[in-house]
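Input record (Table S2, row 190):
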Amino acid sequence: MVAKKLLITAGKGTNQITRLLNIKLPLIPLRKTFSWLTAAENSYYKEGKFPAWGYDDGNSTYYGFPDINEKGLKIGRHDGGRLLDDPRELEQFGTYSEDEQEIIGFTHKHFSKDIELKEGKVCTYTNTPDEDFIIDYLPEYENIMVACGFSGHGFKFASGIGECLASILMEKQPAISLESFRLSRFDDSI
Ligand SMILES: Cc1cc2nc3c(=O)[nH]c(=O)nc-3n(C[C@H](O)[C@H](O)[C@H](O)COP(=O)(O)OP(=O)(O)OC[C@H]3O[C@@H](n4cnc5c(N)ncnc54)[C@H](O)[C@@H]3O)c2cc1C
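Output record (flavin-adenine dinucleotide complex):
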């Protein structure tokens, strides 16, 4: 396939692709866990009664959603996580004792002691050193762009960023400046 420009948005797999060009971007893939939990008196946590929420005590940051369709209270930790040497190898929930201990510890302290783990899952954050996005052309390639390193908070921006990327690839002015997402801010680490 021949194309005038290429855009790489491969999340945790980005460096697998840029490696073909001998480029390693400052991306830190982290194993993240999130869980569904139930309580004896589950009605408190139902959708429509219990809010989505965030918690930050300066040491740890958690977020959560009410029980929707009997799935249980959904809670995840935004900070922390285990560094992944190879982003393709994501050990399942429960591989480490802290997977369950951490979430039960948090919920027993801040919710109620009768909360039990229903199901835990894992996924990946692809963090950058400053936990902000990388949206830029690759060094020495004016026709290859990357958008990656969304550091656990990119989903909500996906449509807006997608629109800006489309504009740039069609050589139009993007709706917002993407200057602050340039790779040059990490110059000494590429
Ligand atoms: C538990 C959890 C909760 C989150 N909660 C929120 C939230 O509340 N709000 C929010 O804004 N963000 C949240 N995020 C972050 C959000 O999901 C990510 O920032 C966003 O999905 C990153 O988008 P991406 O396109 O860079 O990567 P991805 O969504 O991972 O997409 C990358 C795509 O590239 C493909 N790919 C990978 N490697 C290759 C390869 N070598 N070749 C071809 N294709 C490849 C993958 O299959 C995948 O389809 C959360 C993330 C997690 C893990």
